[in-house]
Amino acid sequence: MSETARLIDMLKVSNAQRIPYAQSLDLSLLEDPVVVSTKTGNNHYQVIYQAPGTFSEALQFIADRKPLPPPPNAPLGKDLQTRLNFVIATLNKHTVNTIAKAKMAGRLPALSTSDLPTASPTEASATASPARGSAMLNSIFKSVRVPEFKYRWQFWAEKGQQQPPPKTTSTTAGAEEYANRPKPLGEQIVSVKDFYQHFNNIPVESLKLRDSIHLFHLGVKPLWEDPRNTRGGAWYFRISKEQAAQFWHEICLLAVGDVLQGAVETKRASFNDDICGVSYSVRWNAVQVAIWTRDADNEVGKEKLLQTILEKLSAELQPKKDSYWYKAHKEHKGFAGGE
Question: Keyword RNA-binding, does the record have it (predicted)?
Answer without folding.
Answer: yes
